[in-house]
From TrEMBL:
It is a single-pass membrane protein. It comes from Rhodosalinus halophilus. Keywords: Cell membrane, Membrane, Protein transport, Translocation, Transmembrane, Transmembrane helix, Transport. The gene is yajC. Part of the SecDF-YidC-YajC translocase complex. The SecDF-YidC-YajC translocase forms a supercomplex with SecYEG, called the holo-translocon (HTL). This is Sec translocon accessory complex subunit YajC.
Length: 96
């Protein structure tokens, strides 16, 4: 009987953990994977929004986790890829 009562006391904790996993942890992991795919698919000409709220067009994609983004004509900044929050418009891949 002691083993059954110990299990009965642990059951609510196990259920709480399972609920937390399915409501919080799993959706967060899915969002992280989607964001990583979006960041990896960035290309020259995409219009992006950074986490700081800056909107610009990608002018150069560098290999060392950086992008060059043009905020206004002649104003270019270097941005870390992971700080891109959203892609507003994608460019079509060129045939050449």
């Amino acid at each position: 009987m002691d083993g059954a009562s110990a299990f009965a006391q642990l059951l609510p904790l196990i259920l709480i953990f399972a609920i937390m996993y399915f409501l919080l942890i799993r959706p967060q992991q899915k969002r992280v994977k989607e964001h990583q795919k979006m960041v990896e698919a960035l290309r020259r000409g995409d219009q992006v929004v950074t986490q700081g709220g800056l909107i610009g067009k990608v002018t150069k994609v560098k290999e060392d986790n950086e992008l060059e983004v043009e905020l206004a004509e002649g104003v270019r900044v270097r941005v870390v890829r992971n700080t891109v929050a959203q892609v507003l418009s994608k460019t079509e891949p060129s045939n050449s």
